[in-house]
């Protein structure tokens, strides 16, 4: 895996959230999923900039949903993982697992 293929922490979190929310993951639900599970808060700018970067790399693809009156006639962009995105996520998580293996760490150091 080249340096260009490596995922950042936020990229991993976004890909996992997209995977969890499939087929209904969109910006707000992705952000909410990450916050609910990790207690980390990210701005919408960070979420959408990272989703755009992941789409440019071919790791996610977006599709437009239906326009709704609740959104002022705007459409949601729904995201899903591509085969390449799934492979990149698997490799990234495997690397983390390999680094954690055998160290017996259970949590934060006081």
Based on CA atoms alone, the radius of gyration comes out at 16 Å
Average of pLDDT? 91
SSE order, one letter for each helix or strand: HHHEEH
Number of strands: 2
The total domain count is 1
CATH class: Mainly Alpha
Instruction: Report helical residue fraction.
Output: 40-55%
CATH topology descriptor: Arc Repressor Mutant, subunit A
Structural class: alpha+beta
Describe the strand arrangement of the main beta sheet, using strand numbers: 1-2
Distance between the termini: 35 Å
Shape: globular
Percentage beta strand = 5-15%
Task: Please name the fourth-level CATH homologous superfamily.
Answer: Winged helix-like DNA-binding domain superfamily/Winged helix DNA-binding domain
Largest sheet: 2 strands, antiparallel
Which parts are unreliable, with pLDDT below 50 for 5 consecutive residues or more? none
**Reported CATH architecture:** Orthogonal Bundle
Number of helices: 4
Strands, helices and their partners?
Layout: H1 9-21, H2 27-38, H3 44-56, E1 60-67, E2 75-81, H4 83-100
Antiparallel strand pairs: 1-2
Helix pairs in contact: 1-2
What is the structure about, briefly put?
The protein is an alpha+beta fold and 110 residues long. 51% of the residues lie in helices and 14% in strands.
Description:
This protein has 110 residues and is an alpha+beta fold. The protein has helices at residues 9-21, 27-38, 44-56, 83-100; strands at residues 60-67, 75-81. The chain is 51% helix and 14% strand. Strands 1-2 form a two-stranded antiparallel ribbon. A hairpin with a 7-residue loop joins strand 1 (60-67) and strand 2. The N and C termini lie far apart (35 Å). 20% of the residues are buried. The mean pLDDT is 91.
